C-alpha cells in the first residue's frame, strides 16, 4: 500500500506533507501494515486510519470539524443511490468515530457542531433502518437523532431530523394523530423557513389526507406552497440532496394529498408535474408518484389498468429502491382492489412483485 508517507524518519521533501513526529509515524505505519494484512476487511479501522493520516498532514491533534461537516453533507447526496444495508455499515463506522472525536472537543461551540453532524448521521441511519423494514429499531434511532439535534441547539437541524422522521412515520404505520402532533410541535420550533421546513409542512398535509380530513389537508397543502415560496434558493435549487427541498418535492406532496383524497383531476396534474421534474426516473420518490397513478386508476374502478401499471413500475426496479416507502404505496394499490377481484392473476402477480427481496448489500444500481 503506497500512501506517500515519508520513509525511515527522513525529512519530508520540499512541497510535501510536513514531517510526522516519530510516535505518530510509528502509529500510522503500524496501522497501514495491519490494514494491509486484513485486506480492508475492517472498515472502522480503515476510516480511523484515514482520519489519523489527515491529522498527520497538519501535525495537529485537533478534530477536523470541517471534515466531519463534509462527511455529513456527502451523505445527503449518496443516500439516494446507496443500498440501505451499505448505508448502515458506513454510518455505523462514522458514528463510532464521531463519538470518539466528540470526547476530544472542549469548547461548547465545537461540541454543538459535532452534535449537529451526529444528528444528521443518526437521521440517515434511522432512515436506512426504516427502508429495510424495521420500524421499531428505526424509531429508537430517530429518538437519538432528535436528542443530538436538540443538543446542537441549531433550529434547522432540529426541524430537519423531525421532518424526515414524520415523513418516514407515514410509511412505518406510526399512529397518524401522533405524527400530526409531532408536525405541529416541530412547526413551532422556528418561524424561519429553512432546511427541513418543507418536509414538516408536507408531512402535516399528507397526514391530514390519510386521516380523511380533506378541507384541512388542502389548507395544509396551501401552506406547503407558501413555505416553498419563502425557502432560500440554496434550499430549493439542488434536486439531489436530502438537505434541500426542490420544486419536485412540492409536486410530490400534491400528488400524495390529491391521490389519497380522491381528487383525480388535481392528482393527475400533480403526477405529471412531479414526474417531469425528477432527475432520476427510478428514484424512490419518482416510483412512488407512478404508484400514485396506479392507485388513482384502481380507485376509479379500472383495476386492470391500475394493477398492470403498478406491476410495470415495480418490474425490474433496482433492489436499491425496493424500500419500505415504495412497498407501502404498492400495498395501498393492492388494498384498493375490491375483495372480489383478489383472485385475479394480475393481482396475484403484483402481490408477488411486492414480496421480492429489498435492497441487498453492494447493490447500488440506479
Order of helical and strand elements: HHHHHHHHHHHHHHHHH
Stretches where pLDDT is under 50 for at least 5 consecutive residues are 1-21, 31-40, 359-366
The major pleated sheet works out as:
none
- Per the principal axes of the C-alpha atoms, what is the gross shape? globular
Given the helix and strand composition, which structural class is it? mainly alpha
What count of helical segments does DSSP give?
A: 17
- How large a portion of the residues is in β-strands, by DSSP E? under 5%
Through-space gap between termini = 32 Å
The total strand number stands at 0
Average pLDDT for all residues: 84
| Helical coverage, percent range | 55-70%
Radius of gyration over alpha carbons? 23 Å
Structure report:
There is one protein chain. The chain has 17 helices and no strands. It is about 70% helix and about 0% strand. The longest helix has 24 residues, at about 110-130. Residues about 1-20, about 30-40 and about 360-365 have low confidence and may be disordered. Helix 1 runs antiparallel to helix 2. The protein is globular. It has helices spanning about 20-40, 45-55, 65-80, 85-100, 110-130, 135-150, 155-170, 175-185, 195-210, 215-230, 235, 245-260, 265-275, 285-300, 305-315, 325-335, 345-355. With about 375 residues, it is mainly alpha-helical.
Amino acid at each position: 500500500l503506497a500512501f506517500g508517507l515519508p520513509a525511515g524518519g527522513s525529512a519530508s521533501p520540499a512541497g510535501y506533507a510536513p514531517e510526522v513526529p516519530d510516535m505518530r509515524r510509528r502509529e500510522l505505519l503500524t496501522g497501514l501494515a495491519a490494514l494491509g494484512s486484513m485486506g480492508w476487511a475492517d472498515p472502522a479501522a480503515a476510516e480511523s486510519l484515514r482520519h489519523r493520516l489527515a491529522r498527520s498532514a497538519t501535525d495537529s491533534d485537533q478534530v477536523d470539524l470541517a471534515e466531519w461537516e463534509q462527511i455529513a453533507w456527502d451523505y445527503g447526496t449518496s443516500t439516494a443511490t446507496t443500498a440501505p444495508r451499505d448505508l448502515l455499515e458506513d454510518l455505523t463506522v462514522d458514528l463510532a468515530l464521531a463519538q470518539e472525536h466528540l470526547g476530544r472537543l472542549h469548547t461548547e461551540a465545537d461540541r454543538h457542531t459535532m452534535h449537529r453532524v451526529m444528528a444528521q448521521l443518526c437521521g440517515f441511519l434511522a432512515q436506512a433502518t426504516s427502508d429495510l423494514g424495521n420500524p421499531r429499531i428505526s424509531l429508537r434511532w430517530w429518538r437519538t437523532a432528535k436528542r443530538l439535534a436538540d443538543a446542537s441547539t441549531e433550529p434547522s437541524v432540529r426541524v430537519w431530523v423531525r421532518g424526515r422522521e414524520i415523513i418516514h412515520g407515514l410509511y412505518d404505520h406510526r399512529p397518524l394523530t401522533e405524527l400530526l402532533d409531532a408536525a405541529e410541535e416541530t412547526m413551532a420550533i422556528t418561524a424561519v423557513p429553512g432546511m427541513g421546513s418543507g418536509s414538516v409542512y408536507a408531512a402535516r398535509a399528507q397526514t391530514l389526507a390519510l386521516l380523511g380530513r380533506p378541507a384541512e389537508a388542502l389548507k395544509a397543502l396551501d401552506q406547503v406552497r407558501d413555505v416553498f415560496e419563502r425557502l432560500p434558493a440554496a434550499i430549493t435549487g439542488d434536486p439531489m440532496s436530502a438537505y434541500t427541498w426542490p420544486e419536485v418535492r412540492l409536486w410530490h406532496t400534491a400528488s400524495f394529498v390529491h391521490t389519497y383524497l380522491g381528487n383525480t383531476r388535481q392528482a393527475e396534474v400533480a403526477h405529471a408535474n412531479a414526474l417531469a421534474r425528477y432527475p432520476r426516473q427510478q428514484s424512490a420518490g419518482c416510483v412512488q408518484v407512478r404508484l400514485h397513478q396506479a392507485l388513482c386508476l384502481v380507485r376509479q374502478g379500472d383495476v386492470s389498468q391500475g394493477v398492470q401499471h403498478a406491476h410495470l413500475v415495480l418490474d425490474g426496479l433496482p433492489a436499491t429502491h425496493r424500500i419500505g416507502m415504495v412497498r407501502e404505496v404498492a400495498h395501498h394499490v393492492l388494498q384498493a382492489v375490491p375483495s372480489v377481484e383478489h383472485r385475479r392473476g394480475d393481482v396475484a402477480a403484483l402481490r408477488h412483485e411486492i414480496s421480492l427481496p429489498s435492497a441487498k448489500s453492494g447493490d447500488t444500481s440506479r
